[in-house]
Amino acid sequence: MRSKLPDVGTTIFTRMSALAKECDAMNLSQGYPDFEAPQALREALAKAVMDGHNQYAPMAGLPALRDQLAEQLKIHRGVDCNPDTEITVVPGATEGIFCAIMASVGHGDEVIVLDPCYDSYEPAIKLAGAAAVHVALEAHSFRVDWNAVAGAITPRTRMIVVNSPHNPTGATFSHDDLISLQQLVQQHDLLVCSDEVYEHLVYDGRQHHSVLQYPQLRERSFAHFSFGKTFSVTGWKTGYCVAPPALTAELRKVHQFVAFVAVTPVQQAVADFLATDPQYPATLANFYQQKRDLFCHALSSSRFRVSASGGTYFQLLDYSELSDLPDHQLCEDWTRKLGIASIPISVFYDSPPQQHYLRFCFAKSDTMLAKAAEVLCKI
Ligand code: PMP
Ligand code: GLN
Question: What's the rounded Cα separation, in Å, for the pair 55 and 269?
Fold first, then answer.
C-alpha cells in the first residue's frame, strides 16, 4: 500500500515514554502529570457513570457542559460565546485541530506553521492535501518573527497555526504578537488555528492572550482547548473548539465523521465540577509556577543555561556547556545512563538549527523534580 504519510513514524512522546519505562528512568519526557486530578472531579466522573450518563451525547457536546464552557470563557477571558453555535466539545484538542485543518484546507493550499511545532499539525495538513510552510521561531527567545511570517505568505496561503503558551519552548504571545497576527490575517485573508491548550499555565504575572479576545482575529479563528491540561486528566482525552458559527458548522461536518462525539460521562463530570468550582483553572498558574521554580532553583548549581519557562509545564534546558551531541542522542544516552528521560526539540523542526536544548516536563511530584535536578546537577 502507498503510505499517505511516508515520513511519519511513532511520535517522540510514545518513544521516549517507552524508553523511560524500559530503563526505569524518571519520565520527564511526555507531558502528563504524575499526580491525581482533583478528587471532586474524579468523583464526578464515577457518579456520572453510575448515574447513567453512558450513551451518545449530542454531536456538538452536552448542552450543560457547553453552557459551563461559555461561562468559563466569560470569567477567564472576558468574552461572550454562544454555546450552541460557537462551542464544540471534542475528544481531545488533537481531534479538534485535525478537524479544523481538514475542514479548511485542501489541495494546492499552504498552511504556515511555526517551528518548533507540535507534532500533530503537519500530518493533518498533509492528509488534507495541503502543504505545510515552516517558519522558524527566533533562536533562543523563541519569539515569532512576524516579518518572516509575512515573507512566507503566498497567494496559496490559507491558514496559519499558532500555539501559545508554546510547546515545547514555553514561550508565550504578548498583546503585540496578537496584533501582528491580526494585521497579517486580515491583510491576507487567512484563517487561524490557535492551539491554546496551556491557556491557564502562564507564569510571573503574565496574562494569556487568546485569539478570542481580538474581534477581527476571532472571526477567522478556531481556538482549541484541552481538559487534559486544565484538569490534569490527559487520559480523559476531551477538549473543545471555539469558532464563529460559520467555521463551527464546517468543523462539525468533519468532527461528526471523525469521532462523532466526545465521551459522555467525562463531559457530565467536567460540567458538574465547573458548576461547583468555576475558579479552579485560575489556581493552576500558581501551582505550576511553584514546580517550575523548584526545578529551576534546584538547577542553579548545574552547568545548564536555564531561562525560566513563561508558560506550559515544560522547561527547556540549554546543555551547550555540557555536550556537543545532537539532542536526540543525548536524550537517549541520559535516559539509559542517568535514568532521566526528556524530549529533544530538534524533532519539532523542518530544518533544525544548531542548538542544544532538551525539554523537561515539570508536571511531576516535587520529590521527582528535586531528584531529577540532583542528577542533572552532577553532570
Ligand atoms: N497541542 C499541544 C501543544 C499539546 O501539547 C497537546 C497535548 N498533548 C495537544 C495539543 C493535544 O491535547 P489533547 O490531549 O487534548 O488532544
Ligand atoms: N502533548 C504531550 C507532550 O507534549 C504529549 C501528547 C502525546 O503523547 N501525543 O509531551
Answer: 14
Band of residue 80 on the pLDDT scale cut at 50, 70, 90: very high
Query: Percentage of the chain with pLDDT > 70?
Result: 100
Predicted local confidence at residue 287, as pLDDT: 98
Omega before 168 within 30 of 0, i.e. cis = yes
pTM for the whole structure: 0.98
Return the C-alpha cell found at 364.
Answer: 511531576
The Å distance, Cα 41 to ligand 2 centre, comes to 22
- Reading the block at residue 87, the C-alpha cell is 462551542
94 CA from centroid of ligand 1 (Å):
6
Count of domains forming the chain: 2
Which residue among 255, 279, 303 closes a domain?
A: 279
Same domain flag for 76 and 215: yes
Ligand 1: residues within 6 Å at CB?
Answer: 31, 92-94, 118, 163, 167, 195, 197, 226, 228, 234, 237, 239
Percent over 90 (pLDDT), the chain: 100
